[in-house]
Design goal:
Order of helices and strands: EHEEHHHHHHEEEHEHE
Largest sheet: 5 strands, mixed
Oligomer: single chain
Strand order of the largest sheet: 6-5-4-7-8
Distance between the termini: 87 Å
Strand content: 15-25%
Helix content: 25-40%
Number of strands: 8
Number of helices: 9
């Protein structure tokens, strides 16, 4: 934006009018040839200026910086997803603080868009004018908050995923709910034992436990993971637990059968199977 005030002409001196003024507002020039009180008022109403004072005239407008209404600005994809998540979290976690719901929505949005778990990359996809370091510190404080209980925050999402999976089996036919179990190796000395619902070539996590890395997880840890899911599925729902060779324990198989579920677990080549105690290996 610019304001160009020209020199007063001889006619201006005789008539008492002000000098030529050109005000550019949002790319549109506003011309004032005669600086009368009326024309100054019209420019004031157009440019919404509040301070009309210069060295030459009390009617010449100061530069006015136009601010476009936020409602007219195009909403970014990050902000659109964040607001959608905040609306969803308000329904799932009505008792949580608004600031924590907002921080969780930002975290989910950043993870979705960045497709990465590094906080700096996640923070880089969060909408807002704050610096990247400030956004990263904000996420780190949220994750380090002892009052933020992952189980409490995620249990409504888990229950919603289970309900949708059960409804899918009822509408699409006799397709069972498939629970995928696996062990994820993290950096350092940690590993995560996870269970997720199979959906469109993806695993939607519904339960997980973190352990110190000590080789392959044992049957007790695996049973503890599935015990957390026992009772969350209706009795008439067909459930199949799918796992790799790390879940070959017969104790785990017996626990799955006790829940009325089925299993599809990979076995090693040197493992023999028999249907009953009377049948041969």
């Amino acid at each position: 934006m610019r304001m160009d005030v020209g020199k007063r002409t001889e006619q201006d001196r005789r008539t008492g009018s002000n000098s030529r003024c050109v005000v550019t507002l949002a790319g549109e020039p506003l011309h004032r040839e005669n600086g009368t009180h009326g024309s100054g008022r019209r420019i004031a109403e157009t440019a919404k200026g509040t301070n009309w004072k210069t060295e030459r005239s009390s009617y010449a407008p100061l530069p006015y910086f136009h601010r476009t209404s936020r409602s007219r600005l195009p909403m970014s994809n990050s902000l659109r997803i964040q607001r959608k998540m905040q609306s969803t979290l308000s329904q799932l976690l009505p008792e949580a603080l608004t600031t924590r719901r907002r921080a969780l929505a930002q975290m989910i949005t950043g993870l979705h868009l960045a497709e990465h778990v590094h906080l700096s990359k996640v923070a880089g996809r969060i909408a807002g004018t704050a610096q990247l370091e400030s956004k990263t510190r904000h996420l780190r404080r949220f994750l380090g908050n002892e009052d933020v209980d992952p189980e409490r925050f995620y249990s409504p999402v888990r229950d919603c995923l289970i309900d949708l999976a059960v409804q899918g089996t009822q509408t699409e036919g006799t397709s069972p709910v498939r629970i995928l179990v696996d062990t994820l190796e993290l950096s350092g000395e940690r590993q995560v034992l996870m269970a997720g619902i199979a959906y469109r070539r993806r695993a939607l996590p519904i339960c997980w436990e973190t352990y110190r890395r000590e080789g392959v997880t044992n049957a007790g840890q695996q049973i503890s993971l599935l015990r957390a899911l026992a009772g969350l599925f209706p009795e008439d729902t067909e459930v199949v637990v799918v796992g790799d060779g790390a879940f070959h324990s017969t104790d785990l198989m017996e626990f799955i059968e006790e829940q009325g579920w089925h299993f599809c677990l990979r076995l090693h080549t040197d493992t023999c199977v028999r249907v009953s105690e009377e049948s041969p290996w």
